[in-house]
Each structure stands twice: as structure tokens, then as C-alpha cells.
Amino acid sequence: MKRLSGIITGRPLGVFIVLLAVSFLLGMNIRGVDLKVDTESMVPRDDPVIQDLIETVEDFGSQDMMMIAIKAPVYSKDTLAKVQRIGEQLSDLPGVDSVVTPLDVQVIRGDEFGLEISPVAYGAPETAEEIEEFRKALKDSPQGSAMVSEDGDALAIFITLEPGVVASLESQDLARDIEAIAFSEKAPGEEIYVVGEAYLGYVATNNMLRDLKILFPLSLVVVIAILYISFGSMFDVAALIITILMSLACTIGLMAVLGYDITIVSMILPIILVSMGSAAGIHILNRFHEESGKGRSPEEAVKQVIHELTGPVAMTSLTTAVGFASFATSFISPVRVFGIFAAAGIMINFLITLTCVPSLLLLRSRKNNGRARINRVFLEKRDDRPVLSRFLESASTTVITQPHRVIFAVVAVTLIFAAGIPGLDVETNWMQYFRQDSHAVMGTRLVEELFGGTYSLSVLVDTGEYDGVKEPDVLERMARLQDRMGEVDKLSYPSSVAELVRNINKAFNADDPAYYSIPATREAVAQELLLFTMQGGSGLDSMVSYDFQKALVSARAANVPTSELGDIIDEVEAIADEEFRGTGINTRVVGLPKVMLRMMEKFMDDQTRSLIFSAVGVWLVVFAISRSAIIAFLCLIPLSVTILINFGFMAYMKIPLDVVTIMISGISIGIGIDYSIHLTSRYRYELRNGKGQKDALKATITSTGRGIFFNAFTLMLGFGLLVLSTFRAISVFGMLVAGTMFTSGAGALILLPAVLRLIDPRYIRGVGKAFPKGESSI
Amino acid sequence: MKLQSQKVRTLWTTLGVFVMCILVMLSGSVHAAELTAREILDEIESMALLAGSGSAKIELITENKRGQQRSNTLQLYRTKDDDGTEKQLLEYLQPADVAGTKLLSITRSEGKDSEIWLFMPALGKERRIAAQEMQTKFMGTDFTYEEISGTAAYKEDFDSVRLEDDTFDGYACYVLELTPKGKSEYTFVKMWVWQDEFIPVKVEFYGRGDKLTKTLETSGWKKNAEDKWEPSEVVMSDVVAGTKTIIKIMETSGGEISDEYFTVRYLRRR
Asked: Residues A334, A339, A344, A349: what is their CA dihedral angle, to the nearest 10 degrees?
């Protein structure tokens, strides 16, 4: 520490320039950071569910779909010409595997020669007769009726994306291009929607970016305002802001240098660093002004500050970093990356603050001929808040006189909230992140209403043998499975190779409905399929694997909350098990809904793991520094209450646990622990200075209470700003973090002292190493 | 609109036309020091026109992106009547579940109207199949109808430029760049022509944006019993889709084929 303060007091300008240069060099890389949004990339590739999906893509081609829904009279020359134009443009886009419009529907029918497979139209029909013919042909085809609404006022265009595109950076460009093509064809009175996972991700990213562009400067302004009110000095505020911006440049720059992308999760990093990055600096400025006020020279004051504050500031930074680092155990990779870099950002911020703020203070005092400008406003302001003082006064009285009641009340409230926790929902569906009146949500709802849904849910049937799918018995079972899947609520338009074989068989036998069945022998099946392909029939590849060992039975699934999706998947799995029982044939559900469900299952584990990790981590840090197991344990009490109340609140308010809200507990532990640390350290300090328990508690609550109040207040405002986001996930996140800041602050101010009141001061005073007192005053 | 991408799957084909065209290429003997692209093409075409009667046993292998293969063995017979009508019969020998499936095609010289009949033994009936559009993928292989039927008349429909000579698979080759005059799915085609025999041994097809889309490669050229050059293997690779169609020529003979093979009645015969 001596060396550090020596360097800073010796060459403040040099230190500042080095910091600036490092920040600039790292910050330069920020432009190289890319955005990445998709559900699949959130689950690690070695997860069995992802393995299934990868295998499915290899066997059956891409499972990534997008859809364009057009609400306009379908059977008109203009609409159909438009459909053709959109289809042609879409199929030219890189990343698009195939496009199917109602004009491309394949019609299978019997004719006098045998079997005819033809597109429903050759180009867009123009005359009234052509359009009528088209309408009839489309009605006769199961595929066609799945693409045009019953009353002919809406149609869908299906886009299959190339495998891997959704998980790549091109997905953003692709979604933008598809949107542009679709919207450019919008005529007055028509509605055109783009739907699909990739598109939702794109819109979500854009919404978040747009929001953050407003919210980030806004949070800076709020932090500046609060700091200015507290310090009354623009210089102090500027020093803190410079520190924050440097930390931000270094952290994001580091992410870029190490090749990590910004994800929907790490987008909130800037706001977090802005809200939290000032804490360490505030302590240092405070102490500096205090020392200067005592008449010390700036060099001496800086030395004193560095000597006294490095430990406590390191501890609070470390505990916050531990809170974030707990996400490193997450199975969701964006959350993992976010946790690591948020923790790194907090530590970087600590290092920069510790060096940058003193350097700037010295630089200014040198300009002012070696004297520190004494911050009179700051010193005078210490006692001019009667409301707060009176509140803290009465709080301390209550805590000291009626600790049992306080504890009882807190426990009762906590239990009421905790009782709701079992009802907490888990959500992994993008849709739930949007406000329900947004264009993207409305489009998805329309598609569901008319065309059944935007997700594809499939059962993979693996016969385990070459050509096994051609066995009539297997096909019969698949046909039954398909029929039963069609009856499951929220599933629609089932399809499979069995359905295709039934249709071919019927068409082959002069369209006799009696032949809508699977042929009796394997040879007959093989030969009918041969005929189908020879006739130019298409679509087999997406239903059967190349070696005919595996097949998919698919249906469209509506966009429902993940928990409901779980019920649907269970039901489908039960049907598949029943149909294939005793055959030795392996069936399993695959597809994006399964990935979403898998994430949901993992969310709870993840949350528990993150909680344990952060609690143990924080306990260890506090123990290491305070050398007291009891104190480290006591510090966790307000946090446990905070977390229980938070989850209970979420459950009662029907706020699900999702990729974003899963981080709240870790953040609140990391930040909330600081309040408890401040409180306990001050309490011990007072005890050691000879005060009795009551006086020590009173002194602690009324003095440190101020710091805790302002600290929590700054963070509540900083995170509370996120409520303004138009993106539901972010706004909920902001609200909840602000709420936990309130509860953990109140917990440290009221509950913790009440608990301390019941513990013999000897256990607290005597044990462990002395806390330096400096960190407990703002 | 041809938007749905058809991947390689099916195991059947009237590849015969194509194979025949290649195997009947007679050894040419034109040796001029500086031939123009046009002169080279003339030599090739005069040979290709000699496609006639014969039979062949081939193995047709389709390969998907992952390198998985499906194999079919086919016997094919071909003849050409005096009036220019081309007749062709294909019979599946392997795999077992489609063995005995036969396909008869009769293409009259006037127009591209062809009659195609398919007999499926498991169903005990023959069916007539509709003729396909010329540029669509041929029966699920990597060949288009145009390429299969040899109707891509390079001399008439393409402008040709001779590029620098090259060697392919040990054969000294002329290299031609052929640009279609009319509408085509290709922007240009590069053809490697074996200098000694005027046989195209390799063709590269370039699509939109001058991107290589497909390659056709031949190998194992040898003279057969009729003293005609034939390759032992022809491979068409779809560079974009990552699929392949491999034709292995197992046996060939150039004799006359009895006309009764080319009747609907013959289809039903076991």
C-alpha cells in the first residue's frame, strides 16, 4: 500500500495518463463487440437436449423457421403477385434455406395415369378463373389449408433458415432483411407481420439497444445529480464519472479483446457499472475531505486514505464481485459470461478508483498551489437532514427497546412472501419479454389464431435399423401418433412421412378415400415413395433421415408460457411412449420448445447453485476480513430475508424467473452485503471504543445508517430507471433490483441491529480483527 | 417458382442417356496445333451425336451432406428408332425392396414430349408418370434434366472462349469457357476437354454471382469391347448443397436391343 500511495503522490499525472491510455486502448476495441441473441446458444452444446437438436438438424435439415403473415384478401391478383414477389426476394437472401408460399404448395392427386404431383400454381394466378382454380386446389391440399386462413383473408409464408444461422451473427441482418422485404410490400389496409424465434430475438435486441441508448445517459445524469447533491462539488462528480467511464471502457474493451459477444444479458452491464461504480469513489472522496478538513496536506490525506480504505473498499468490491461471479456457475452461457465480466468490471472499477481518484485530487491541489480545496459544502452538509436523522433516531429506539417485536414482524412478513415461492413460474420464452401490445407479440398471436403457431414440436422416431421407417407397422404407429398429436391442445397441423404415404397411397388408387392408409408391405411402401420422388415430390428430407432409420412426427406449437409447454411436451411424450411401447423403437421429443423446457428445468438448479455459491462466497470474504464466523453469518441474515421476499413478490406478481430475473438474487447478495458489513463494522468499532450495547447500536444506526440510506437510494434510482424500458424483461428487472436494494438496506438498518441487540456484545466485540472504521461513513 | 430445395435422395434415374452419351464417344483423331474453342466443341459434338443402342449396368450412388450414401443398382437398355424416337428401359436390381421396379421412357424426336411408364411389382401395376420440367433436378439426383438428356447443346446455345490448357487427372486438356446465350441457370460453364480424344473429362458449372455451383468429374477412362471410350465413374457434386451423385459403370455393351424390351407389356414380366 505504501508503494502504491508513493507512486500516486509522486507522479499523479503519470498515473492518470497511464490509466487513460489503458482505458483508451481497451475501449478502442468496443466497436468489435458483436451482439448475439438466440435461445439455442444459451444452452451448452454438450447438453443432451442440444445434442438431440443438432442430430435432428443433421438428419432432417434446419429446424429454424420464420414466418410472414399477411392479412389481406388472399384470392386477389394483387395479393398473389405480392406473395410471389416476397417469395422470390426471400429465397435470394443468404441464410435462407427454403421458402414456401401458398403458391408453392404441392398437390398430390390421382389421375387417369396414376399419380400426379404438381405445384398448386405455376406463378401467380391472374385471371378470375385461374384464381378460382388455385383456391380449389389449395383447399384440397392439407398443406395448403395450413397456409391460408379458412375465410381467405390471411396467408402465411414459411421460411426455413439454414442450420446454424439463428445462432450466428448473421441472424440479425437476416431478420432485418426479411422484415424489410415484408414491410416494403405493405399496402394501406393490410397487416403484415414477421414472426419466429429469430425475429423475436432481433426485435428484442433492437428494443433493448434503443432503450439503453436512452437509459444509459439517463442513469449517468441521475448518478451525477445524486453525487452533486451529496458532495456539492463538480470536481468530485467529474472525478467519479471519469472513473466510471474508464472502468466501463476497460471492461467492455476486455470483453471485445477476449472475443465475447454482447448478449441480451450483458447489455445491462453499463447500467450496472454506472450505478455501482461510484460507491468506492464516494468512500475515498469522503475520507479525503474529512482528512483535508483536519488540516492535512493533500499528499498526507491521500496516503492516509489509501492506507485506511484499501481494505474495506476492497472488501465491499470483492463481495459485490462474488455476487456476480456466482453466475459463472450458470448453465446458461450468456449469464455465465455476464457474471464473469460484471465481477471483473467491479474489480477493475475498484483498481481504477483507488488510483485515479487520488491522482485527480492531487493534480487539482497542485494546480491550487499545494492546498486541497476544502469541501465546505460537504462538511457542512453532514447534519442538515432532519427528516432522515429523526427517522434513524426513532428506528434505533425501536430496535433497541423492542428487538423481539422487530424480529417477529420481519419474520412474519418474510413468511408471507416465502409462502408464495412454490408458485414461482419459470419462463424461457422470448414472447414473455415483450409488452403484450407490441407489434411482434400481436403478429405471433395472429399467426397462432390462424395457423396454429410458430414453433415446431417434433417426436423423433428412431427405429435403430436401416430402412426401418419403411416398415408398415412403424408407419401405422407414426400415423396414430400424428393423429393424436393433432388432438393435443395448442398443437396443430401435424405432419409426418406416414401422412405422406397415406396420401400417396390414396392418390395412387384413383383418390379412393378407402386407400387413405399405409400399404401392407414394406416393398409397396418403398415403391410408392420411389414413385413420389420420381414424380418430383419434395419434402421427404425434412421428415425422414437419409437412411430411413429415423423419422419425425411434427406439429406446430402455439407460443405459450414455458410451464404450459412442459405439460404439452409431457403429453406428447406419453402418447409416443404408448404408441411405440414394446417395439424397441426409441422416441423422444425434439425441437426448440424442448430446448426452452430444458432451460426451464435448469433454471431452478441454476438459481439454487448461484444462491449457494454467492452466499458461501460472501461469507468467506467477510470471514476472511473480519475473522469472525458469527459476524459473517449475521451479515447474511438481511440478505436471506431480501431474497425470500423478492422471490415471493415475483410469485405473487406472476413475474417469472427468466434469463434476466435469475440474476437478481446474486446481484442483491453482492450489493446488499455491503450494508451489513458497514453496519457490523461500525458497531464493533463503537463497542471497542467503550460504548455499551445500546449506545453502540444507536450510534451505529444514526451514523452508518445515513451511508446505507444514500448508498441504497442511489442504487434504487439507478436501477429503478430501467423501469422506463419498453422491454418488459428489463423494466421488471429494474423494478426488482430496486426493490431488493430497499429490502436489503432496510434489513441492514432494522433487522440486523435487532438481532445484534439479542446477542451478547462480548461475542461481537472480542472476536476477530478490528475493522478499519473508514468504510462506514458517507 | 422453384423454391423448395430438393436434396439428393432418390435412387433411380434415366441416367442412361447421359451415360450412353459418354460411353459411345469414339476416339477422335483431330490434331491441330491451335484449335479455336469452336473447333474443339465441333469435335466433341460430332461424337456425342453418335449415341445409339446399348445396355449398361450401373451403380447409382447418392450422397448427402454428411457423406451418407444410398446405393442402387440399375440395368438400363437403350435404343433409337429410325424415326428418331429414343426408347429406354431401366430396371432396379438393388436394393431388394424396389428390385423389379421398371421404368420405360419413350421420347419422340419431335418436341420434348415423352411418355414415361413405371411398373411397381409390389403394387402389381404400372403407372404413367408426367414429364418434368427441363431445368428441375432430375429425379432427386444432382443432375438436371437438361444435363441428363444431353439437350444442353453447347455449340448452339453457348458462346465459347478457349482458356489456357490444363491437366485434369493426368489428362492434358483444352479448357473452354462457355457462356449461355439465352436464359440459363448458369452464368457460365468451364469444360476440360481431353486433348487426345476430345472427351470432356470435367465440367464446372457457375451460377449467379459467378459462384461455382456444381462440378462434373469423370475418371477411369478406358476402351470397351466395342473400342469405344468409357469412364468407369462419373461424379456430379453440388457444391452449394454439399451433395453428390456418383455413377459407377459396371458393364456396358453396345449391341442392338430387342424392341420388345421397350413395351408396357414387358414391364410386368418378372
From this structure: 110
